[in-house]
Specification:
Layout: E1 3-11, E2 14-30, E3 33-39, E4 49-54, E5 60-62, H1 65-77, H2 81-103, E6 109-113, H3 120-131, H4 133-137, E7 144-148, H5 153-162, E8 169-173, H6 182-191, E9 199-201, H7 207-211, E10 217-219, E11 223-228, H8 238-250, E12 252-255, H9 261-273, H10 285-297, H11 307-319, H12 324-331
Parallel strand pairs: 6-11, 6-12, 7-8, 8-11
Antiparallel strand pairs: 1-2, 1-5, 2-3, 3-4, 9-10
Helix pairs in contact: 2-3, 2-9, 5-6, 6-8, 9-10, 11-12
């Protein structure tokens, strides 16, 4: 059973505030405005099912994931393509701004969440590369590192020590295994602590740390950027959610607000409009338009909607300029 909390609504001129109902039909927009259909709990005169009018999707909260998805779909339907691209573009501008702030030491920690293959990592690494150009020219070590994949707790401790100096930035990209390990999470929380002094301890013997001359405790002065596909608010595990809430309270949390296939496609279209998507491909803009049109028409069949998928299809135009669509159907799409 899906239930809905109606924070503010109205049924037959009767105000409804902060009441929970059993859901019957999801959020709908009619000619007279938005409404949601719920089961009459018996407190209202009328039929078994009633339509409660609401001003916006912000007036309700759902408990079930399917119903939450209906709110996302409802919200996106009310936005034009241009409005969606403007919203997403602003979020990526914020990503660049916050990355520069982390490089300068003004931001200690940031969590960035969004679907895979939409350019989260690119935006962060672009700013880091730009900031380290003079280090490379001078032959100095760069002050940042991007870590991808799995990492053990002792490996995390050693990596944090390596980048513990001020103005160093450590980026964890697709390292969600850290979030699933209690010891790693506690080390990360210590590094992101909001106090003036962030001291990290390793209270166990380790041949790895001894061999690398790493002490059993140190003060961390660097910044951390954690890039993930997980939306913290969607995590169901109570134990994990408590840990993630603790992390979130220590960090700036940037949700890139791409919750639907349509959002992801419009992000790809946005990059294409800037001339950045197919920059390395020597084909006409018309071919690029054809690729995007193909992706748009086949949103529900493509294995994923991402920048990577757009480039995969672009690669197929090199294989066969005439039959790339057939090749894409065979290699990039699910069977019907």
């Amino acid at each position: 059973m899906n239930t809905v909390l109606i924070k503010k609504g109205e049924y037959r001129n009767t105000a409804i505030e902060n009441q929970v109902f059993e859901m019957v039909r999801p959020l709908t927009r009619g000619k007279n405005g938005a409404y949601i259909t719920v089961k009459n709990p018996g407190s209202f005169e009328g039929p078994e099912k009633i339509r409660v009018s609401i001003d916006s999707a912000n007036c309700i909260e759902f408990t079930g994931d399917e119903m939450k998805d209906s709110v996302v779909a409802f919200k996106t339907k009310t936005e034009s393509d241009e409005e969606v691209m403007e919203r997403i573009g602003k979020r990526f501008d914020i990503l660049h701004d916050m990355t520069r702030a982390a490089i300068n030491g003004d931001v200690r920690a940031m969590i960035v969440t969004g679907p895979p293959g939409v350019g989260k990592s690119f935006g962060v690494e672009y700013e880091l590369e730009k900031s380290s150009i003079f280090d490379r020219i001078g032959g100095n070590n760069t002050k940042y590192e991007v870590i991808k994949g799995a990492m053990t707790p002792v490996g995390l401790y050693a990596t944090l020590y390596k980048h513990s100096d001020k103005n160093h930035v450590l980026v964890f990209d697709d390292c969600d295994s850290i979030l699933m390990d209690d010891l790693s999470l506690n080390i990360l929380k210590a590094a992101l602590d909001s106090g003036k002094k962030r001291r990290i301890y390793w209270n166990a013997d380790s041949s790895k740390l001894r061999g690398e001359g790493i002490p059993n405790s140190f003060d961390f002065h660097g910044s951390v950027i954690f890039i993930t596909n997980l939306k913290f608010e969607n995590i169901k595990s109570k134990k994990l959610k408590d840990h993630l809430d603790a992390l979130q309270s220590r960090c700036h949390y940037l949700d890139l607000t791409m919750d639907t296939m349509r959002d992801c496609f419009l992000r790809i279209k946005q990059i294409f409009r800037k001339g950045e998507l197919f920059r390395d491909y020597k084909f006409t803009p018309e071919v690029g338009e054809e690729i995007l049109d193909f992706m748009d028409k086949n949103q529900n069949r493509l294995r994923e909607m991402s920048l990577r998928m757009a480039l995969k299809i672009a690669d197929l135009t090199r294989v066969s300029s005439d039959n790339w669509r057939e090749l894409a159907e065979s290699t990039c799409m699910r069977r019907v």
